[in-house]
Write the structure tokens for this entry.
Amino acid sequence: MNPDLKILTIQGILAVGPSENYSYNGSKKDSNLSNVLSSVLNKIRVKDIKSLPIVINDTGTIYDAAVLMFTEDVGTLFIVNDGGALQGVVSRKDLLKAALSGINTQETPLNMAMTRMPNIITVSGDETVFMAAKKIVDYEVDVLPVVRNFYTKSGEERLKVVGKITKTSLAKLIVDLGEGKRQRGFER
Ligand code: ADP
């Protein structure tokens, strides 16, 4: 076999027939690539790539939240109550909007500016990275809290924040995959 054609055959670009006749295999190769990507994204779990969430108590003010955003260098905070249950989410723009409205940010409770439960889009550690990415795109948010259920002493079901998935988490995963660094998820 011509060595150049052999390389193209190995790469899957050309298909070789029984009497060494060659045919272009481009679209088939694209669909194979798509299958591989889809299988990777559906194998890697949220718990494999989640990062640390930054939370703030619901007794805090809008000013407290802005300071925490700067010191922790994050764009979104999760608001929890004394029992550790997720109450809301506050983004950079939520705080900016509140500040621009002219209210006293040092006296106004944070819960005036946050998006609150039950309107929070969440993800569980066992969901796939694909599902997380789809929720981020579909709901047009930057971050999803990774949650698990727990029961309060009085038996009410609540959500505990155990991590976060951000657009950066997804970008890092792409870089890791591109550099061949990430093996976990492929083997399962
Ligand atoms: P920004 O407002 O800084 O552009 P986002 O796009 O993440 O950041 O947030 C847009 C709006 O959606 C904000 O009002 C924010 O409170 C809300 N939000 C952010 N994350 C979530 C989430 N996971 N579920 C529901 N609402 C969210």
Residues 26-41 form the longest helix (16 residues). Helices lie at 3-10, 26-41, 46-49, 62-72, 92-100, 129-139, 167-178. The domain at 46-178 is CATH 3.10.580.10 (CBS-domain). The first strand starts at residue 14 and ends at 16.
